[in-house]
């Protein structure tokens, strides 16, 4: 390994290779802090060319690579592989090209999400995907995770905003995928790459689509006796043909936590909704008024409309800091990320509460109600023996509930290391085997982020062989044509 | 049994290549069974829906059978409150829209020939219409897919919820794969509400530069059209800007658009429908149809680069999607050599404009003999070939139809 680190240092400079145990500590986990592993080496390349050479060294040495952005991921996707190397893209943080006329920006993967918007906001443009961590998470990480955010209900996910990418594959090839012009001929490999959680290659450049800032945004905050009424309000708003920019729900515990952490003066109620409508003025005024009517008709206790931008920002701060805020009401908590059909929200929340009561734990819910993307926060105290394990089991059962309800084990945090074991419950063997073949097309030696996403590794080139029909089937079919 | 071989019909011929027989499965199980049977005999197969995009792609290198999807035409699940539908690949777009309309919903795509085009075919061909301006290409609305692989294995990707990042995005990957990776048997789509109101602002007599300036102007006044198209006329271009949504919003946006333009008129109802039908006709006419893609801000330069091709196409018509950076040309190739030269010079002109490309969506044999309908292979071609080998190692699914001879 010293040899590998030495060779990598020759590529990126000794200051950009980390092997010291104390310095490696920060790389032992990403935003999911339990389940830490220590990498053999961390390397920080500064260019596509350096990434190619790092990949070559790793390939020759047979050492797996784990790409890492800002390390804010919540599924352990950037958790190191024991004995492997972590490739941090943190030094590649240049904005390479801003093309306002076309609404494109080409960036290196280490650029922070919000910095893209900052770079173009003077021209009235912005980059739409807005994960709650957008002030610190990187574009490369967003591409790997297909990050969402509160406003993807109207604007879509990262995958809807990536026009082109440059990627280094495990065989050292540098491949440009996508346009940026529309409809590049060939398979949509970019679609496979976005959300592939670092398993297909290392992205070194990304071209993003910019949008014009909406003319106006109307926000309201409504409180409800329980999540049932709030859920009905969401369904009613959607059924009225309204596509909000965002519609977020918080339950009682989440509200308590947000109040404690941010000082928002929210009342002590069973549930709250925070909705944004944005777009052209006349449309938005109409839609916002209609949504408020529906919220009231669904049993809203109170509807608040912010008087100014500062008040609006505070409302959103309350929502966006809710994960961290839960730290105010519980020493430890797990963040889950499951998806259910929107119409099942009320039922599933009641079921989660029942399951939590059964094992003596509390669950706070703060989530993207418009697309049924739940974020149950399982509260526990690690100092109590056995409680952490109970919390993890409950988290797993909540994911299973999402699968049973017709949903998914992840809406935006990814599968990573943490949820690979649930993949075989959401997908069949053949589904996973088909995805594994896609991986083989990009990375035939499983050099990139092995052990993530898929519950059971499969070697490329491993074939069950051509289809071998049952003899009786042969007899029946052979005479057909 | 429906997976039994059927005699070949006229419409089963793919770019002049006639298969030996057809199969027409009615269920997913039958489709899988048919695919296994084809695998056993190592037969080459092309999947055929409504046949509206069969001219896209190259001539198949070999063809034993066509698998018609038209009887895979059931809605498996429609959840109006979740705004999703799971539907068999063989249902036509128009039929789906008729089923959704009573729920005041639609699938927000509008490719040509909705009465014939099937959903599976639309996905496989990445077909689109002017509403792509707002709703994106079909891949942005596909949230789940069921594929029958070359070996007859049934695999699913995505799911039935809009937000879902579990596993690789097979649904998007299959979009535009033209039946070369597997049979798209069922698709789950995200739906949108039917708009309460619709109106189109029409501006006539615009130059190419005016057309290019349309998008920045619309951005400036912050309106959000659902469709934006420019039709070539004898007198420059007619630009159409459609707004759909709630009545007050539609009215306001059309008014502001016309005020900003300082010209033009608003059409609604039957007149509006007639206009967009005319747009469809341009997309469909001619033995040669080309689709050019370019950086939207370079629209005027792109059109300049397309001029030789346009001139080589007798009766050549053009429709432009300024927001997408796409132009569609249609006409007759009176002189195949001149048309091929036009294609070559267009490709050279488009390449510097954001890696622009030109694909022939239809071309007669004389033109195909002179140019690859897909153009030069893209940068990712080696990965594409490996992907093809992974999923169709014997190259039996539409062999030779796709990019780079895939």
Key structural traits:
heterodimer, A: alpha+beta, Uridine Diphospho-n-acetylenolpyruvylglucosamine Reductase, domain 2, Uridine Diphospho-n-acetylenolpyruvylglucosamine Reductase, domain 3, Alpha-Beta Plaits, 4 domains, seven-stranded antiparallel sheet, 17 helices, 20 strands, globular, disordered C terminus, B: 406 residues, alpha+beta, five-stranded antiparallel sheet
Question: How would you explain this protein's 3D organization?
Answer:
The complex is a heterodimer of chains A (481) and B (406). Chain A has 481 residues and is of the alpha+beta class. Helix content of chain A is 36%, strand content 19%. Chain A contains 17 helices and 20 strands. In chain A, strand 8 (162-168) and strand 9 (174-178) form a beta hairpin. In chain A, helix 8 (227-239) packs across helix 10, helix 8 (227-239) packs antiparallel against helix 13 (345-358) and helix 9 (252-262) packs across helix 11. Chain A is globular and about 65 Å long. Chain B folds into four domains: 10-69 and 392-405, Uridine Diphospho-n-acetylenolpyruvylglucosamine Reductase, domain 2 (2-Layer Sandwich); 75-193, Uridine Diphospho-n-acetylenolpyruvylglucosamine Reductase, domain 3, CATH 3.30.465; 197-281, Alpha-Beta Plaits; 285-368, Alpha-Beta Plaits. Chain B is built from twelve helices and 18 strands. In chain B, the strands form four sheets. Chain B has an eight-stranded antiparallel beta sheet with strand order 14-11-13-12-16-17-15-18, sandwiched between helices. A five-stranded antiparallel beta sheet of chain B has the order 4-5-9-7-8. In chain B, strand 4 and strand 5 (84-88) form a beta hairpin. In chain B, helix 9 packs antiparallel against helix 10 (336-350). The longest helix of chain B is centred in the last third of the chain and has 16 residues, at 269-284. The radius of gyration of chain B is 21 Å and the shape is globular. The chains are: A alpha+beta (481), B alpha+beta (406). The interface between A and B is large, with 104 and 105 residues.
């Amino acid at each position: 390994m010293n040899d590998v680190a030495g060779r990598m240092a020759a590529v990126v400079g000794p200051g950009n290779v980390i092997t010291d145990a104390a310095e490696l500590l920060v790389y032992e986990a990403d935003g999911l802090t339990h389940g830490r592993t220590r990498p053999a080496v961390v390397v920080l390349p500064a260019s596509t060319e350096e990434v190619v050479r790092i990949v070559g060294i790793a390939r020759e040495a047979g050492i797996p690579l784990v790409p890492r952005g800002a390390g804010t991921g919540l599924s352990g996707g950037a958790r190191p592989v024991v004995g492997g190397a972590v490739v941090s893209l943190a030094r590649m943080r240049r904005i390479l090209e801003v093309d306002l006329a076309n609404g494109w920006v080409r960036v290196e993967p280490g650029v922070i999400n919000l910095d893209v918007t900052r770079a173009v906001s003077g021209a009235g443009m912005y980059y739409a995907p807005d994960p709650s961590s957008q002030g610190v998470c990187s574009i490369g990480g967003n591409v790997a995770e297909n990050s969402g955010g509160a406003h993807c209900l109207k604007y879509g996910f990262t995958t809807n905003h990536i026009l082109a990418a440059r990627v280094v594959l495990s065989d050292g090839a540098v491949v440009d995928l996508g346009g940026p012009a529309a409809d590049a001929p060939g398979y949509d490999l970019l679609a496979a790459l976005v959300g592939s959680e670092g398993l297909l290659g290392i992205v070194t450049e990304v071209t993003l689509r910019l949008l014009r800032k909406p003319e106006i945004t109307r926000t309201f905050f409504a409180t409800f006796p329980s999540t049932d009424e709030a859920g009905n309000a969401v369904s009613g708003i959607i059924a009225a043909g309204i596509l909000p920019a965002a519609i977020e729900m918080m339950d009682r515990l989440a509200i308590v936590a947000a109040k404690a952490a941010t000082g928002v003066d929210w009342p002590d109620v069973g549930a709250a909704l925070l909705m944004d409508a944005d777009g052209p003025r006349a449309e938005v005024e109409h839609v916002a008024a209609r949504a408020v009517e529906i919220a009231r008709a669904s049993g809203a206790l109170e509807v608040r409309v912010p008087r100014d931008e500062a008040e609006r920002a505070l409302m959103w701060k309350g929502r966006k800091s809710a994960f961290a805020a839960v730290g105010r009401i519980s020493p430890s908590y797990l963040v889950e990320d499951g998806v259910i059909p929107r119409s099942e929200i009320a039922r599933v929340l009641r079921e989660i509460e029942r399951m939590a009561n059964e094992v003596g734990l509390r669950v706070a819910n703060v989530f993207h109600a418009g697309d049924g993307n739940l974020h149950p926060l399982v509260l526990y105290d690690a100092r109590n023996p056995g409680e952490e394990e109970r919390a993890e089991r409950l988290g797993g059962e909540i994911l299973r509930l999402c699968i049973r309800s017709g949903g998914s084990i992840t809406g935006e945090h990814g599968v990573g290391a943490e949820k690979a074991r649930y993949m075989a419950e959401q997908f069949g063997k053949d589904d996973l085997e088909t995805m594994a073949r896609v991986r083989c097309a990009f990375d035939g030696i499983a050099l990139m982020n092995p052990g993530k996403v898929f519950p059971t590794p499969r070697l490329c080139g491993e074939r069950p062989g051509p289809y071998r029909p049952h003899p009786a089937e042969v007899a029946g079919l052979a005479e057909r044509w | 049994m429906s997976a039994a071989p059927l005699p070949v019909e006229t419409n089963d011929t793919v770019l002049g290549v006639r298969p030996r027989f057809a199969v027409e499965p009615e269920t997913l199980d039958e489709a899988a069974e048919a695919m296994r049977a084809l695998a056993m005999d190592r037969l080459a197969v092309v999947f055929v829906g409504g046949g509206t995009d069969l001219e896209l792609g190259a001539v198949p290198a070999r063809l034993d059978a066509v698998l018609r999807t038209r009887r895979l035409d059931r809605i498996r699940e429609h959840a109006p409150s979740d705004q999703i539908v799971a539907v068999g690949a063989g249902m036509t777009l128009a039929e789906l829209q008729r089923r959704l309309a009573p729920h005041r919903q639609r699938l927000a795509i509008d490719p040509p020939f909705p009465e014939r085009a099937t959903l599976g075919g639309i996905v496989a061909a990445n077909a689109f219409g002017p509403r792509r301006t707002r709703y994106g290409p079909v891949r942005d609305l596909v949230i789940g897919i069921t594929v029958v692989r070359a070996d007859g294995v049934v695999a699913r990707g995505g799911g039935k919820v809009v937000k879902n990042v579990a596993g690789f995005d097979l649904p998007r990957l299959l979009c535009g794969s033209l039946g070369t990776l597997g049979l798209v048997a069922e698709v789950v789509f995200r739906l949108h509400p039917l708009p309460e109101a619709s109106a189109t602002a029409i501006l006539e007599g615009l130059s190419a530069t005016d057309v290019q300036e349309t998008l920045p102007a619309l951005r400036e006044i912050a309106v959000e059209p659902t469709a934006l198209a420019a039709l070539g006329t004898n007198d420059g271009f007619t630009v159409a800007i459609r707004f759909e949504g709630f009545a007050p919003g539609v009215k306001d946006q059309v008014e502001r658009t016309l005020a900003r333009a300082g010209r033009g008129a608003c059409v609604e109802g039957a007149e509006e429908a007639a206009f967009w039908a005319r747009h469809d006709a341009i997309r469909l006419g001619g033995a040669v149809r080309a689709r050019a893609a370019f950086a939207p801000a370079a629209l005027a330069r792109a059109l300049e680069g397309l001029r030789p091709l346009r001139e080589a196409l007798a009766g050549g018509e053009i429709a432009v999607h300024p927001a997408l950076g796409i132009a569609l040309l249609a006409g007759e190739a009176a002189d195949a050599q001149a048309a091929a030269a036009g294609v070559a010079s267009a490709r050279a002109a488009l390449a510097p404009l954001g890696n622009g490309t030109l694909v022939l969506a239809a071309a007669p044999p004389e033109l195909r003999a002179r140019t690859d309908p897909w153009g030069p292979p893209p940068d990712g071609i080696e990965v594409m070939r490996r992907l093809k080998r992974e999923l169709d190692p014997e190259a039996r699914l539409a062999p030779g139809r796709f990019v780079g001879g895939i």
